[in-house]
Fold:
Amino acid sequence: MAVMVGVSAAAWAVEKPFNPASDPAKDLQAAMQRAQAEHKNILMDVGGNWCEWCLVLEETLHGDAELNALLEKNYVVMHVNWSKENENKAFLKRYPEPVGFPTWYVLSATGKMLKAETNTSELEATHDIEQGYNKAALKRFLEKYAPKRASQPVA
Structure:
């Protein structure tokens, strides 16, 4: 029986989002098409199912109604696997090297890199897995790198 020390039962229950068999180049093309159609940016999340912080981040983003709404409104999320099974080196060589995992790259709908967050520890609450991520810091990040929308004219 596998045991994940330091991760809540809810985090363990999160569907494993990183697929070693996935083709990130094809995934990016699909994400770009969707982002263009929906007027969103792309949040490329690089990590692995082995990474406790990656799973806690996934749980935090989707388990908090406010963060999930920001994510759904502004981003197409794309997961890129990085594990001993597949490091996706050829795909990831075009981006700044991760300092740790998870690593986030925010891309425009056309694939232009807007932000490389190669050290997401700045978004953690206290650098203690039990404390997870800082909701306010995540919210600021998601708002800051959301696509800029034209103001609606007042009727």
Summary: The CA atoms of residues 73 and 149 lie 12 Å apart. The radius of gyration is 16 Å. Residues 1-13 have pLDDT under 50 and may be disordered.
